Amino acid sequence: MWNEREDCGMERDGTGTHIGESPYVVGIDIGGTFTDFVLTGPNGRLELHKCLTTPSNPAEGALQGLRELVDAAGLSVADVGRIVHGTTLVTNAIIERKGADTALLVTRGFRDVLEMGYEQRYDIYDLFLQFPDPIVPRSRTLEVGERMDRDGHVLEAPDVDATLNDVNRLVEDGVNAIAVSFLHAYRNPSNEIAIADAIQKHHPELALSVSHEVVPEIREYERANTTACNAYVQPLMRRYLDDFQHALANEGFGGTLLLMQSSGGSATVETAARFPIRFLESGPAGGALVTAFLGESVGRPDLVAFDMGGTTAKAALIRDGRPEITPMMEAGRVHRFKSGSGLPVKAPVVDMIEIGSGGGSIARVDAMGLMKVGPESSGAEPGPACYGQGGEKPTVTDACVLLGYFDPDYFLGGSMRLDVDAAEKAFERLGERLGLSRDEAVWGVHRMVCENMAQATRVHLIEKGEDPRRFAMAAFGGAGPAHAARVARLLGAHEVIVPRMSGVASALGFQVAPLSFEIAQSLPTEIDGADWSGVQDAMEQLEQDALPLLQRAGLQPAEVRRERWAEMRFVGQFHELDVPVPDGELGPEAGDVLARRFAAAYEERYHSVLEDYVPMVLNWRLRLVGPEPTLDLASEDAAPTNGASAAKGMRRAFFPEGGGWVDTTVYDRYQLGREDRLVGPAIVEERESTTVLGVGDVLRIDDFGNMRIEVATA
Q: Is 297 helix (H, G, I), strand (E, B) or coil?
């Protein structure tokens, strides 16, 4: 069984670090293709590492990479004081349907809640529309004779003995996880508690998720689906955490293990085991955090985070130095880029949009004879054709190799030799099917990927009422810097910032994530004539429920920052806007402030205000946040001034604005200093990524060692 390491009694120094804890911190980001590592230590020390993910057992690759990282730094795993870990385990389990055999208990008469879903078409023109299968099939959905009204009054108490008999049959049939989601349990969980307590007593071996703990919010379908998904991945997450902790202990690790939440905060192993659904998008959240951190250090609070890895490309908007948090996401989409084609999950998540393909995304010819890129990915096994592991299909990475952007002898710092011949053969086959030459097919893939990413990012920003041209772009991920300048040019952005750890930036973002937990309560409240004492009681109860989770991680109440939000709309509307709740006691004055803030937010989003409609709050949210970890990346070697030449040599690369194939200077990222000024076309290489400057782009190095690229206008 899973156990949490007890560290509750340790003192803290007020910065989120245990007193006496080693100053070495490691961030580990397990992605679909690569696993990234960052080690930070005293005096701005920074060590980076990257290795292929091991899909059959992700922890195996993570542990091997961790050993290689600390060995290269002259340390051991025992010297590390804290590990912050992000994983795709939950996402993959839902997408691949490799979770537990799960049953769902619902109110009598509501057995088809997961089957019915929204009863809306996400694409009205698709005659062959498909929806994802429910995470729990109807045959595993059990009706319970109980009923609660919308105000939380018990109309019918559940028959516990009869329900236990049904659960016994499910267990005999192989069920090892149970989700309980009763009607209106968010207002009064007593019926859920009665059933859950009985199941826990008679079947302690079962993974158990109840909706009033997982997501105590209105909207029956989303609440039931989220609770079912949480139960579905709970056994898998607990086994993984147990195995990972034991493996770390065998390596001598005695520090603190934290996991990255989708919301951009870190959490204890205990929280991850109870609420694994909150870790659905843990990796991409790190990229948004490091972008916000980067923006603060360089004086650019408004940025677009552009994260392009081996499997996908994502974008996030950073405004006023903070990423936006949204209360819902989708998992397991039938069509990756179509909103509504997945399973809705009510859990806080950094608002990132998937805008395109990753380095391993496969180029193909569709039934109409047109070229498409993605969403299918070659992953880590076999990987792109150029990896030489048996892959035969052309990918985005293969295109970068054949365009001269990637050096086949310096991929991952030379630790991985790329097979150019395999990439050429893959694109020759693609070109034949399209009636194009190999070079035309190669450039077509690269151009299509950049155009698609620019278009998706533009739509995402405009939908939020923002002009893409006023934002700088922060590029990271193994493939991000190679595509960022062209995407920015198409987007109309004028600057790209490439941090000096760009290839593993998400793993670095984990290290600036504070301990946090977000919780919500549905309490529909019209601002006019609201029961403010009831609202105040609800907010205090939220804190009482959430604070112990942070205290068990060693935080004291005085260290915790409270952030309160209201999901607001006009009465009769369906969609809500997040509005910050004023500090202090909630009463009529606070209601007036909320109304004004909502009107301003509504006008900013929709450019109008409905004067004659009454504003209301649907959900009240509380986010408890611990101290933000300190991270000093400024060091003497961040931007060297030793005068050494950064030029490594010349390579022919393809730049259509320069007339096609151009003899291009290649630079060593680690030798660039503040006195250097590069004008594109140019290529800058580092171990974990490659940056490509287009014709006329200008690059300089700032005091923190970041590459600042002034993008030439199209």
A: helix
8 Å CB contact between 393 and 365: no
Name the DSSP class of 498.
E
**What does the angle CA 389 – CA 29 – CA 273 come to, to the nearest 5 degrees?**
120
Residues 6+ apart with CB under 8 A from 374: 336, 356, 357, 358, 361, 362
Q: Which two tokens stand for residue 186?
A: 């968010």
Residue for token pair 């990915």: 377
pLDDT of amino acid 380? 61
Cβ proximity of 201 and 226 under 8 Å: no
What are 624's two structure tokens? 């408890």
With residue 447 as reference, give the H or E element that holds it: helix 438-463
Please tell me whether residue 710 adopts helix, strand or coil conformation. strand
The contacts of residue 124 (CB under 8 Å, 6+ apart) are none
| Rounded mean pLDDT, 460-469 | 84
Q: Which of 14, 8, 11 is nearest to 558 (CA)?
A: 14
Q: What is the DSSP letter of 712?
A: P
CA separation for the pair 161, 179 (Å, rounded):
18
CA atoms within 13 A on the CB side of 515: 32
Contact in structure between 33 and 359 (CB atoms under 8 Å) = yes
What backbone torsions phi and psi does residue 39 show, to the nearest 5 degrees? -115, 125
The answer, as to whether pTM is greater than 0.85, is: no
Cα torsion angle, 190, 195, 201, 203, sign? negative
Give the DSSP per-residue string, 472-487. Answer: EEEEESSSHHHHHHHH
Strands 25-30 and 82-86: parallel
Question: If DSSP states are collapsed to H, E and C, what string results for 408-437?
Answer: CCCHHHHCCCCCHHHHHHHHHHHHHHHCCC
Pairing state of beta strands 266-268 and 303-308?
Answer: unpaired
Residues 6+ apart with CB under 8 A from 126: none
Interval 217-265: pLDDT, tens: 999 999 999 999 999 999 999 998 998 899 899 988 988 899 988 888 8
Q: Sign of the CA dihedral 322, 324, 327, 333?
A: negative
Q: Contacts by 585-593 with C-beta closer than 8 Å and gap 24+?
A: 585/536, 586/532, 586/535, 586/536, 586/539, 587/532, 587/536, 588/530, 588/532, 590/532, 591/527, 591/530, 591/532
- List strand residue ranges (DSSP E) for 149-246, in order: 154-156, 177-181, 207-210
pLDDT digits (tens, 9 = 90+) for 554-574: 888 888 999 999 999 998 888
* DSSP for 622-667, written as a single string: EEEE-PPPP-----TTSS--S----EEEEEEEEEGGGTEEEEEEEE
Number of Cβ within 10 Å of residue 14's Cβ equals: 11
Pairwise CA distance, residues 128 & 491, whole Å: 34
686 CB contacts (<8 Å, ≥6 apart)?
413, 500, 502, 503, 669, 670
What is the Cα–Cα distance from 505 to 44, expressed in whole angstroms? 15
Residue labelled with tokens 């180029």? 363
CA distance 346 to 135: 15
- C-alpha 331/C-alpha 88 separation (Å) is 12
Report the amino acid identity of residue 461: L
581 CA to centre of own chain: 26
Rounded to whole angstroms, the Cα distance separating 564 from 562 reads 7
Quickly tell me which residue has 């399973």 as its tokens.
343
The single residue listed with the structure tokens 């385990």 is 89
For residue 218, give the nearest of 152, 305, 166, 153 by alpha carbon.
152
Instruction: Give the helix/strand (H/E) hosting 618.
Output: strand 615-625
